[in-house]
Amino acid sequence: MGHFAHKAGRAWRHWRSSASEARQAFPETTLDAIAHAIDEGERTHRGEVRLIVEKALPFEAAWDGVTNRQRAIALFADYSVWDTEDNCGVLIYVNLAEHKVDIVADRGIDRRIDAATWQAVCRTMTDGFRQGRFHEATLAAVQQVNALLHQHFPSSGERPNELPDRPLML
Question: 124 lies in which domain range?
Answer without folding.
Answer: 2-169
